[in-house]
Write a structure and sequence with these properties.
Layout: H1 2-43, H2 47-74, H3 80-92, H4 98-113, H5 119-138, H6 149-169, H7 177-188, H8 192-210, H9 213-235, E1 240-246, H10 250-258, E2 266-271, E3 278-287, H11 288-301, E4 306-312
Antiparallel strand pairs: 1-3, 1-4, 2-3
Helix pairs in contact: 2-5, 2-6, 3-4, 3-8, 4-5, 4-7, 6-9, 7-8, 8-9, 10-11
Length: about 325
């Protein structure tokens, strides 16, 4: 009896602690959701959000015109979830519309990504997915009269790519492989590009098996042009450049160059490889349009300065994208 009572007492303590821990976790999650929802409602009051939504709607309709007017008539596929939907659509098009099929394929994706992203990003992606599905339905049966398949692939890639790039630039999203790729990257350290390439390879290979090799090659052309156009639409003339400047007059460079173009900067302390003298290296990030002005001002301030310019893909921070724009959730301290 004593032993049984002791086991009962220990098990009661265990389940009580487990219940308290579960309640605490649930409460924290509810607080996170409440704060995230408040963040989203605050975004609704900004002009940036509605401009992004307008651009997202325009981009979705452009892509839908390309899907219904070029890809389906020419038996081309696309990348991402749209490509997977096109892969399955030919077999089940008598039972389900393409827009509904796309929406159904996104349901498990949003379930997977719900815990990994901020509520704001998930809601924006759901809105984008809904707009895209609706636009696919509204543009059903549209025709774009381009008989040459090569011209069709290039023209469709340019239209869809720029339309997508514009809303991505403003933080818009329609869900899809962006969510899956980010989750896999966080959990398994597999680059997002690798995930995209694997899916696109399956899509192109399936296109060749279901139709013919020529259609698959045109699909590859469409994907390449789409990717290039999307990148150009996303960065536009504001392509980021990271700049290192080594000058014997760092204060003058900061005053006469960087302040004129209204950019922040950081000093790195370094020493020369041969002369061994101490130097301050200036680091800054600018856009493509500011690069010419920076070089001009630098030439007039210190023509002996050394400058190194590199392409920069993503810049997150003050005056650029925020972490929330990228879909990340802010870490909140437990009170």
């Amino acid at each position: 009896m004593i032993k049984t009572g002791w086991l009962h007492k220990q098990s009661s303590r265990f389940f009580l602690s487990l219940f308290c821990k579960y309640n605490k976790t649930t409460l924290n999650q509810m607080n996170y959701l409440k704060e995230d929802f408040q963040e989203f409602t605050n975004a609704l009051r900004t002009l940036k959000f509605w401009y992004m939504l307008l651009t997202l709607t325009l981009g979705c309709f452009i892509f839908s015109f390309v899907v219904n007017g070029i890809l389906l008539p020419h038996n081309f596929f696309a990348g991402g979830v749209t490509g997977l939907a096109l892969l399955f659509y030919d077999s089940i098009k008598e039972y389900i519309s393409f827009s509904l099929l796309y929406a159904l394929l996104n349901i498990p994706i949003f379930i997977i990504g719900f815990r990994e992203f901020s509520l704001k990003f998930i809601i924006i992606s759901l809105i984008g997915m809904g707009i895209y599905s609706l636009s696919l339905q509204l543009t059903h049966g549209v025709e774009i009269s381009i008989n040459d398949p090569m011209l069709a692939a290039i023209f469709g890639g340019v239209l869809a790519g720029f339309g997508t790039g514009f809303y991505l630039r403003l933080g818009g999203s329609v869900g899809g492989l962006d969510i899956v790729g980010t989750v896999i990257k966080k959990r398994f350290e597999i680059p997002i590009g690798t995930v995209f390439n694997m899916v696109n390879f399956v899509v192109i290979a399936s296109n060749a098996l279901l139709y013919d090799l020529e259609s698959a090659l045109y699909t590859g052309v469409f994907m390449y042009v789409f990717s290039w156009s999307m990148q150009k639409g996303q960065i536009g003339f504001s392509q980021r450049k990271s700049v290192f400047i080594i000058s014997s007059k760092p204060e003058e460079v900061a005053e006469n160059v960087l302040k004129k173009i209204d950019r922040g900067f950081t000093y790195f302390h370094a020493s020369g490889g041969y002369a061994k003298d101490e130097k301050r290296v200036i680091y800054t990030v600018i856009n493509l349009m500011e690069l010419g002005r920076l070089k001009e001002y630098l030439f007039h301030t210190d023509p002996e300065a050394f400058i190194s310019v590199q392409d920069t893909g993503d810049v997150i921070g003050k005056r650029f994208l925020t972490w929330e724009d990228e879909g990340f959730r802010k870490l909140k301290k437990n009170k």
